[in-house]
Amino acid sequence: MKIVKSSVQEDESQPIYKGDSTVGEVCNPGIDFNIKYIDDIRVNLSAIQRRTATMIARRALKKDWQAAWLIKAISCIDLTTLSGQDTPGKVRRLCAKAQTPISRELQKELGIESLGITTGAVCVYHEMVETAVKALKGTNIPVAAVSTGFPAGLSSFSTRIQEVKNSVAAGAKEIDIVITRGNVLNGNWKALYDEVSAFKKACGDVHMKTIISTGELSTLNNVARASMVSMMAGSDFIKTSTGMESKNATLAFALVMARMIRQYHSLTGYRVGFKPAGGISSAKDAINYLVLMKEELGNSWLNPEMFRFGASSLLADIERQLEHHATGRYSAFNRHPIS
Question: In this model, does residue 35 exceed pLDDT 60?
């Protein structure tokens, strides 16, 4: 059963997984703070709601096409464990899963053994960075570390800067930072810019993903403006949520942030990645986000260098859907442990 085409197709009904990326690693050096770029932002709430509602209703990916999009989704997952119960053994098992996210038998059934599919990254707390780096040695899978007082971002500024430096020194290739939400809620955009700029400097050459915590910013205008300021300050990715807020990723938040990415690219020529996180647990959700990215930003954002899911349980449901595609039967979740 061969389900993968050799190249990305412009026709949205075609499979999109290629097996490798045609886009180099994202790198956004940032630009000088410009209040005009922020003041000009206006979000039309009703238009956003209509767009997301109709987008879901008119998409129907079936059979081989659906399977191909789900394989693409796997390659874009930041396989994550952020629990007080994390242990070195649990992290090593997670890293093993990241290297072989689909069983060898299922890969053979789908005809995709040669693609070498892995997840996009493994995301852990700082204390587990060294363990993850050792477990992933010899692979191309990066370790991402949450930092800067994750998830609240309210520890002292010097502590947050040192956290970034410590994780970089331990071998993390990506740093997921959190912003001070109060700067957004008070409209203190220059303070937000300076904060994110300082974190970017501490990251050095390591990629920085900025979590703006969309569910805690009150309005879509704030989501859009926080996204723009974070990109101006040098964020390589913008990310919806920590996964620990009462409201995490939604298609409305994703649409607003994707359009800010498009606007920033138009203004500066720099491309910034996007990472929805929190509450994305079904294969159907994953496809909805991928379709949104394709329609709003195009095929060049449909790769792990430009798009990631922050997820822990998503992979299990994708595996179940792929197994059903291959065998006609659904398996139990407990047959697809993450770690």
Answer: yes
